[in-house]
Amino acid sequence: MSTQTATAAITTPKPPADHARPVHFRIWRGDKDTGAFVEYTVNVTEGMVLLDCVHRIQAEQASDLACRWNCKAGKCGSCSAEINGKPSLMCMTRMDTLPPDKVVTVEPMRSFPLIRDLVTDVSWNFRVKKTIKPFKPRKPDNADGSWTMFQQDIDRVQEFRKCIECFLCQDVCHVIRDHHKEDEFIGPRFLMYTAALEMHPLDTEDRVGDLKNRDGIGYCNITKCCTKVCPEHIGITDNAIIPMKERVVDEFYDPITRLFRIFKGKK
Amino acid sequence: MSFTDQYIVHEHDVLVIGAGGAGLRAAIEASAAGVKVGVICKSLLGKAHTVMAEGGMAAAMGNVDDRDNWEVHFADTMRGGQYLNNPIMVEHHAKEAPARVLELESWGAVFDRTKEGKILQRNFGGHRYPRLAHVGDRTGLELIRTLQDHGIHQGMEVFMEMTVVSLLTTGGRISGVLGYDRERGRMHVWKAKAVVLATGGIGKSFRITSNSWEGTGDGHALAYEAGAELMDMEFVQFHPTGMVWPPSVRGILVTEGVRGEGGVLRNSEGKRFMFDDVPDAYRNQVAKDEEEGWRYVCGDKNANRPPELLTRDHVARCINREIKAGRGSPHGGVYLDIGWIKEKLPNASAHIQRKLPSMYHQFKQLAGVDITTEAMEVGPTTHYVMGGVAVDGHTQMSCVPGLFAAGEVTAGLHGANRLGGNSLSDLIVFGKLAGEHAAKFVKEHGAVEVDQAQVEAHTRAIMAPFDRPNGENPYGIQQDLQNTMQDLVGIVRVQGEMELALAKIEEYKARLKNVGVIGHREYNPGWHTAIDLPCMLTVSESITRSALDRKESRGAQFRDDYPEKSAECSTFNLVAKKAPDGSMQVTRRPILQMRDDLKAVIEKMK
User: Pick from A120, A151, A169: which residue ends a domain?
Assistant: First the structure.
């Protein structure tokens, strides 16, 4: 850093440097056209997370290193990246959980178009969300406009609503990552978003047809990669996607329900 | 090059700056009124600092204790704000909050429930009855996601990852906004008939804060530069419980909900020190012993609250006192213990994990502490600014025609100290009001042309750091300012230190003229910091000048040289405004007189 000595008198003393250990990083630098790994070294002290290291590199070595972040507490889902190849939140990756004495590799999420360095274009996710039919509640149960709902009926929906939209599940999903089915498949985040709406006790909308015909739920072959990377530990596959697959089967492939559909003239 | 080659030009009726709870609620309301709405946010949609709010939103629904009603909420908020609040706003807030919470439910929010299937409400500091509608300890996420998922279907246009650098005025009225996109560094002009500021807080001016990088006081500074007034800026809330260890997470919030669920504060001697110092105004509302405090937590209507649930300003000062007296924890905090409730509750561990899941997760993952069995180390952290843009309590409009404000950027509702839970309800109540009146203003007033010379002058100013690649690193100035504010204008203030701070702020202004950045305009955090700095300096100066002028201790402001409340100081709010010569003028404005019927409510609730 250039000049900080003038006010050093009022700064808090730096923590003792004796526990600091140098850690080497390879960080992806580049834009959509070109790029390469660049090496940096940071003195890591106790309790530091990976995002702290990136910030230190920004402050001391590369003030133009691009990186998204906000809350630094695993609540906003902004600082998603691939750390040693694993999709993770930078703010929740403690340095002492990474193998010591090994170079730490930090890359942007590879499933989304790169903007610069660690920042990717995740706008596809926002477009997808807009296509899903919004919440449509039944009429209020009570005269004051309120509804009666019981905790046991909303536990599952609340689990899904813990989602911080970090899009790590979208990043890791092979349907998107390897097969680029973005036009036919909405990804685990939005299958779960749909499940949260479908299982909401007050909702009256029907999205099961969309799941089958438009949203590509059939592409999911339950490898559970999404569940494994979810920083909120949501049971995406077991609790959201599989029950939705079952609803699709019930509604479209069950012989008796099919008969009903023919009579009711539904697609 | 012509103007339209240099700038990407957009046109809206109502332009909302900020997409946290207040901004989104304002945008939804303005859209509902049928005008064209744009929303600009610094981050991606849904990432604003509202997601960090944990404990809940205060609304006197009376679901848990039917003695609650708007009058009690009104009196609690005025008492918490030490009567410097705008009573019109406090009344509107207390009356409207329940309807706004129910509205969230109608838009898909899923609050925790009572046994009868109603929205559950929890205890919080300064609220007489359990009043906070909540979802575990992630209420802010629920709020922002509900507004986001509803809002995207209401026709508003959202501009993500863009920063506003200036409000544009023509003949004293708002005519638009100048900004840039962080992705490419391109300049944008938004023409607008009305602007709603919903930019949140200022915590980044301090070293230890619960705020993210976005809390640089942009809205405060933009409004000030456009001629609006900043009121009550001396009142900065230091939340009593932030994490203190490890260093990288110092300041991150530990929800008051921990104490609401029975968490207690102890010093290094194991003593529950909060019983030692109960302010007179709350004497008859506080439990006389630990046993009564626990009964209160369990919902006994005849019990008074434990002293850990006193107002935030008071709890923060008590913690500060314990640490200074050498009774702190190893990393300079005190202990917050929720695990002790296993003495009282079967399955306490599961209960804690269900009620406080993100606290459990946060401590486990970041500090290696299991809060169901170990005490947390906590200490005060800069959390919230009660002060902000002075607005008309009926419309949320500032003294600049066409400029509205809502949420943390606004002054008035919280007075000298905000009660926990009143912030989320503030966002939805006043976001709605601002959106409604901004739309009304647009319908009543035509468009005004943007002044191109103004746009060009502002653009030159923000590009200047690129001409000085060898200039000073902006991070250095930012860090020095944060240290100055933390150490000299923090939780305990004295005249001499604050005067030193003012001198240092002048020095940073001079250094800012020589700040330089490298690289180009695409996603360049160094450049972004250089642009944030003037905002942070304006905010810091207004805090310091106001704090100097208020020669008393009241609410969030504690003056070591004036440790008592003064009768004289109870009669005015302080207002900072840019004088014609460019200097900052702080003046005293008599507080708004309360209507007689509201005075009677206060008397009744004493």
Answer: A120
ipTM of predicted assembly, 2 dp: 0.92
CB B389 within 8 A of CB B409: yes
CB B114 within 8 A of CB B90: no
Q: Give the separation between CA B142 and CA B481, rounded to whole angstroms.
A: 34
The CA distance from B187 to B1, in Å, is 14
- Cα B87 to Cα B21, B81, B393, B598, B604: the distances in Å are 23, 10, 9, 8, 16
| C-alpha to C-alpha distance for B581 and A48, rounded to whole angstroms | 46
**Residues of B with Cβ-Cβ distance to A3 under 8 angstroms:** 472-473, 476
Give the Cα separation of A63 and B478 in Å (integer).
13
How many CB atoms sit inside 10 A of residue B551's CB?
13
Cβ atoms of A179 and A91 within 8 Å: the answer is no
Q: CB of A68 within 8 Å of any CB in chain B?
A: yes
pLDDT value at A17 more than 70: no
- Phi and psi (nearest 5°) for B159? -110, 105
- CA of B357 to nearest chain A CA: how many angstroms apart? 10
Closest approach of chain A CAs to the CA of B522, in angstroms? 8
Asked if A144 and A253 sit in the same domain, the reply is yes
Percentage helix, strand, coil for chain B under 3-state DSSP, each rounded to 5: 40, 20, 40
Whether residue A69 lies within 8 A of chain B, CB to CB, comes out as yes
Residue with tokens 């962080």: B182
Closest CA to A170 of A117, A127, A116: A127
Burial B99-125 (b: 16+ CB within 10 A, else e): ebbbbbbbbbbbbbbbeebbbbbbbbb
B372-394: pLDDT as tens digits: 999 999 999 999 999 999 999 99
Q: How far is B113 from chain A (nearest CA, A)?
A: 5
Widest pairwise Cα distance in chain A: 83
> How do B584-590 and B572-578 pair as beta strands?
antiparallel
Taking the Cβ of residue A31 and every Cβ of chain B, the question of whether any pair is shorter than 8 Å is answered with yes
Taking Cα atoms as reference points, which of B62, B127, B52 lies closest to residue B408? B52
Q: Which residues span the domain enclosing A108?
A: 5-120
- Give residues with Cβ within 8 angstroms of B1, minimum separation 6: none
Say whether pLDDT at B537 is over 90.
yes
How far apart are alpha carbons A26 and A40 in whole angstroms?
A: 7
Name which of A3, A31, A63 to mutate to probe chain B: the one with the most chain B Cβ atoms within 10 A of its Cβ.
A63
| A positions 182-241 inside 8 Å of B (CB) | 197, 200, 203
Distance between CA atoms of residues A127 and A123, nearest Å: 6
- Select from 3.40.50.460, 3.90.700.10, 3.20.20.30, 2.60.40.10 the CATH code of B239-382: 3.90.700.10
Distance from C-alpha of A160 to C-alpha of A151, rounded to nearest angstrom: 14
Q: Is A44 on the interface with B (CB under 8 A)?
A: no
Per-residue pLDDT at A267 exceeds 80:
no
Q: Which pLDDT does position A3 carry in this prediction?
A: 35
- Beta pairing, strands A104-107 & B121-122: unpaired
Q: What is the residue-averaged pLDDT of chain A?
A: 91
**From the CA atom positions of chain B, what is the Rg in Å?**
23
As for how many domains chain A has, the answer is 2
CA–CA distance, A190 with A174 (Å, rounded to integer) = 15
From CA A247, how far away is CA A253, in angstroms rounded? Answer: 10
In the chain, the amino acid numbered B247 is P
Can you tell me the mean pLDDT for B505-532?
92
pLDDT tens-digit map of B557-567: 999 999 999 99
A132, A116: one domain: no
End-to-end Cα, chain A, rounded Å:
65
